[in-house]
Specification:
Elements: H1 2-25, E1 35-44, H2 45-53, H3 61-69, E2 73-82, E3 86-91, E4 112-116, E5 121-128, E6 131-138, E7 145-153, E8 156-165, E9 169-176, E10 194-200, E11 205-213, E12 229-231, H4 233-244, H5 250-258
Parallel strand pairs: 6-12
Antiparallel strand pairs: 1-2, 1-11, 2-3, 3-4, 4-5, 5-6, 7-8, 8-9, 9-10, 10-11
Helix pairs in contact: 4-5
Length: 260
């Protein structure tokens, strides 16, 4: 009987030790309410050019020339400063790479987006061609569908979610509930945790966090944008349609980028 008790004791002790060793090897991310996230935005420029070629009536010489003059991918760096009350997403210092051809710089490609979670408000500074707009509106109501798929981004376990924007643009997002503050790159929000990855296949565009710093942003870092012609999204979309209606299908592409 004593032998059985001793054997059970040793077995239990080995099990507890094994569990402790396993747990110590796994990095458990703390619940985060504030910090700074480094985002990398990557555009497949050559695929974007191929999309434009579809509506060019067979005259694709300029498309091929543009491919030769521009790398396949354009990569830009952004920063997201956040607390559980507000956030600011903006280009990192020297984070935007200029394309060799001006026409390759897409509209609204260096947005500053301020989110006020307490009041459900978003203020975004967007440069669209030669003009700057200050868009003041409520949060967009994304109809997210949460999936049983996970991936690790910037050291955080993230869950997949999907939605449709602008009636036809499919968006994949990955969020972490270890960061309880809302938000994400551009104007994306509305999931039960911080969005650390976004994939937009139709625009050949991705956003992924590369690093998360856990600290309290300063008032200077969380300041809202204030420059530009004031509009809400409905007014801005109407203005764009009036200005570039002669551009055919490419007008829709501009609207897609402006409404991210």
């Amino acid at each position: 009987m004593k032998k059985i008790i001793i054997l059970l004791f040793i077995t239990t002790l080995v099990g507890i030790t094994s569990f402790a060793q396993t747990a110590s090897k796994e990095e458990v991310k703390p619940i985060t309410f504030k910090g700074k996230i480094h985002f990398e935005r990557k555009q497949n420029v050559h695929k974007q050019l191929d999309e434009r070629a579809k509506g060019s009536n067979g005259n694709n010489e300029w498309i091929e020339m543009a491919k030769k003059q521009n790398p396949k991918y354009k990569t830009d760096q952004f920063e997201l400063f956040f607390t559980d009350q507000s956030s600011v997403y903006k280009p990192a210092p020297d984070g935007i790479t200029e394309s060799k051809m001006m026409m390759m710089n897409m509209p609204a490609d260096r947005n500053i987006v301020y989110n006020d979670y307490a009041n459900n408000k978003c203020i975004a500074e967007k440069k669209i061609f030669e003009k700057t707009y200050l868009v003041n509106d409520t949060f967009k109501n994304y109809s997210w569908k949460i999936k049983e798929e996970f991936r690790t981004i910037a050291g955080f376990n993230c869950r997949r979610a999907e939605t449709i924007i602008m009636d036809s643009i499919y968006v994949i997002a990955f969020y972490s509930d270890a960061i309880l503050a809302e938000g994400g790159p551009e104007g994306f929000s509305g999931l039960p945790g911080m969005i650390l990855g976004v994939v937009i296949p139709r625009l050949n565009l991705t956003y992924f966090a590369t690093k998360v710093d856990n600290y309290l942003p300063t008032e200077k870092e969380l300041v809202m944008p204030s420059k530009g012609d004031k509009k809400d999204y409905a007014q801005l979309n109407k203005k764009i349609k009036e200005s570039v209606s002669q551009w055919g299908e490419f007008m829709n592409v501009i609207l897609w980028y402006v409404n991210l």
